[in-house]
Amino acid sequence: MTVEKALAERSAELASNYDKIWQQVQNKAKGRQVRLVAVSKLKPASDILALYEHGVRHFGENYVQEMIGKANELPKDINWHFIGGLQSGKCKDLGKGIENLYAVETLDSLKKVKKLDNARQNAKLPPINIYLQINTSSESQKAGYSLDNLEEIYETVEYLKQSESLKLEGIMTIGSFAESTSDAGINQDFARLADLKKQLDEKYSVDLQLSMGMSSDFEAAIEQGSSSVRVGTSIFGARPPRNGH
Ligand SMILES: *Cc1c(COP(=O)(O)O)cnc(C)c1O
């Protein structure tokens, strides 16, 4: 292991932040199983190692090369989640780069699913869990399958049923800033994702997981059925700008 250790003070801070969020997750989950994915993008491997030593095993990353680099130097029983925007051209690297890649949560087209599937198959690595990203807010700047074209989602689900390298675990959304910060009661984006789950569960006799909720809205997301929340800032603190911008 070549990763430098975090300072004792930093390790204690991370553990305390994580425990606080974990407690909030449990309070909202009311006995349901809800996973807390620690989103470590742009944070040093030493931070991840500190939380690993605290018992955390699920980490989320947004950039393919950064995640591969970290996965190579960190313990092999970490469950990595890729949660960043995925370009077609990166599917191959993602599929073959990390043996212990647990999930890719941001697939938004059948074309990318096929590319990732082929890469994983050729690399002869263990299967990856897949979440289809859904653009529940219909914002043009957001990635994800459109809810206006369910056929495209069905086609992908049907393709995944036949795959040996990719396993459909759930659906994911980011949700709009407006919904996340409104106090008008339920978050409509989360409600749309929960509705889609219900529909897919019935159509395909499955029980899909729901990945929704971040630092600002994970409690609301759990109340609306989320089974996997992705929390970065509240655990690691504010992120540095990417590439020094
Ligand atoms: C960065 C990121 C998160 C974590 O966001 P925070 O607000 O820092 O908790 C969660 N999900 C996705 C898709 C992200 O890109």
UniProtKB/TrEMBL annotation:
GO terms for biological process: vitamin B6 metabolic process. CDD domains: PLPDE_III_YBL036c_euk. GO terms for molecular function: pyridoxal phosphate binding. Keywords: Pyridoxal phosphate. Residues 22-240 form the Alanine racemase N-terminal domain. Its cofactor is pyridoxal 5'-phosphate. The modification N6-(pyridoxal phosphate)lysine is found at residue 41. PANTHER family: PROLINE SYNTHETASE CO-TRANSCRIBED BACTERIAL HOMOLOG PROTEIN, PYRIDOXAL PHOSPHATE HOMEOSTASIS PROTEIN. Pyridoxal 5'-phosphate (PLP)-binding protein, which may be involved in intracellular homeostatic regulation of pyridoxal 5'-phosphate (PLP), the active form of vitamin B6. Belongs to the pyridoxal phosphate-binding protein YggS/PROSC family. This is Pyridoxal phosphate homeostasis protein. It comes from Candidozyma pseudohaemuli.
